[in-house]
Amino acid sequence: MLHTIVVYVENKPGVLSRVVSLFRRRAFNIDSLTVGRTEKPEVSRMTIVTDADEDQARRIVANVYKLVNVLLVDDVTHHPALLRDLALVKVAASRETRSQVLELATVFKARVLDIASDSITVEMTGGEEKVDRLLELLHPFGLLEVVRTGIVAMRRGAKSPSVTTKAKAAGTVDDGTVSYSV
Amino acid sequence: MGSSKATEKADSKAGANAGEKPTTMTGARILWECLEREGVKTVFGYPGGAILPAYDALRHSSIRHILVRHEQGATHMADGYARATGEVGVAVATSGPGATNMVTGIATAMMDSSPIVCITGQVGSKLLGSDAFQETDITGVTLPITKHNYLVTRADEIAHAVREAMYVAKSGRPGPVLIDITKDAQQSTCELDWEGAAPKMRGYRPDLSPAKEEYEKALELIRHAKRPLILAGHGILVSGAEHEVKAFAERACIPVALTLLGLGTLPASHFLNLGMMGMHGEAWVNKTIQEADLLLAFGMRFDDRVTGNLKTYAPNAKKIHIDIDPAEINKNVKVDVALVGDLRKILLELLPRVEPGNHSDWIEYIRGLKGDTAVRDIQNLPDNGHLYAAHVINDLWHETRDRDAIIVTDVGQHQMWEAQYYKHERSRSLITSGGLGTMGFALPAAIGAKVARPDADVWVVVGDGGFQMTMAELATIVQENLKVNIAIINNGYLGMVRQWQEFFYDRNYEATPLLNPDFVKLGQAYGIRSVLVQKRGDVVPAVRAAHAHEGPVLIDFKVEQEDTVYPMVAAGAALNEMIRRPNPLIETAEDE
Which of A16, A35, B61, B391 is the most exposed place for a label (fewest CB within 10 A)? Predict the structure, then answer.
């Protein structure tokens, strides 16, 4: 099944390649990967969607954790979470079909970004399935160009696991025991 | 130039004594200063263009530099140094080919969790990415085979990189760390802020410990086990848990099987020590694993060479896995209880809570499994006038057992015979490349071990194939005046490959016969006392003479050419399906 894993990393050069290299080396699959800035300038945040069973997912988390620049790994698959994908869709639209395309965009709450004589470009943001569904419906009109960002994820509610950004001196355990169980 | 160097050294010493060491210095000097303060006494290296500023600054340092003959050798030496002591070994090379030559040694250290720090020069930061002369993206190349690596482009980043690298290499599950330093970072100056450069890490968590309830689950399984077995691995040595493992095994009365890298962590003579498991492990040990109802894996990772076919591995056993690396849990073998953390700490927690056990029936049963093993043992075959590797190893063991000996082996048949016939009583008395199986490891690793422990008797046990991969380091032995003894187990073949061809490729000995140089003459060309031994009776005198000789000694043991390592679990076979040495009694009957 698909697992959605949020990885907080130090915002340093080369960290993305370390994470990607790990997935490649361990033959873990990547369905999508996004990376961006966060509320803390020194922290970047990745959302990785990966096809893995529970045991593989645990091993992925454990392996990603071993990377020195990784601050926190949170598998949000089994937690209430907001998952959002963004797509830019350029669809063929003649004078005859334009209104039908616009109607679909309205129903899906997709923003119309550009209208040309023979095409319309819309921005669709939502859960992956909703984006899939829109693309499916637009397909018969002729999809000229599609780009998707991949999933970004955030837990629902106030409480997300907090990232320790306070540096700790080597060899000290700062916030009690980190426990691990199978 | 020699005299000015001496003056410089004297000057810097005087400065240090007066407490006036300049705090502003070149990146190159900071590099050595930090290594020195981190406790590094020796580095193994090879100079070149991009690392020249660092070499130039070496005159200000008390660190001993050992000039190798190939950068691969430098990494194996650092590795041997680390394995002999547990301290971080340091290797130095230039950019480009110097750095890429280190790759094999780095991968070797990675697979065997050996703490080394590799320092490479890099082209000037302005030239990065321009395909400049001798430029290689070595941090990119070594990304998957280092625990971590650093590209340092400024002098003021060097101190922090060095201190953090030393910490990362040694802490948690140890491993290799590489620091790539551009030439301009070595040349430019800045202030050394030693305290400010202390490793402060936000993410890295090497010090996990198990959840409380996992201890209870483990104790419960131990309490109910009737046929328990401890699998003792390299992690015991890394954690320094030898004493605790022995105490635990004795208290719970549980026999112990060892991995190749675990040999020595429990004395071979200990009544609970069964011997080595796995592909060339003792047949009774593998049968014991298959019949056990509880396996306690202590600092081992269920490598395919110890499990055989995973589908049939230890089918009746519950499994408790103690390892510092959570990524090892359930990787190859699904376990029932995982205790993640430092083995020694975990055993100290378990020891007072584990009930004294009595498994004498089980131990008696295992004794019975030994069956005809003694009859099949090459040591017990009638003397046919041939010299076998087993004889050499056995005699070497007899002659060194009462000394502080370190045996450093290469990879192949001789390595397995060493593991079978040399009875290791002490931890860190065997150094060998396990995970990566790196031919050419032995000679340079032995140099590192000798430098680390000058009072130990260091013996290289190496095949004629692997020896020729790194024999250039004979010159290093001589130049550094190191007493390293070399036993070449010379059968004129790439023996282990030949053995696979014999068993699985219809005896098609493609590319395995070796035309060797005269190793005695070769050793003599380096100024090393070298002798040829072809008869069993000459082994002991040759070993004794080597011990009596002040300098290094090379012994070319010409052994039986087509001898085979028995028993053997074929790749993909179940652990208990072993190819055994043909029963000599039957064979003799047929001969007659």
Answer: A16
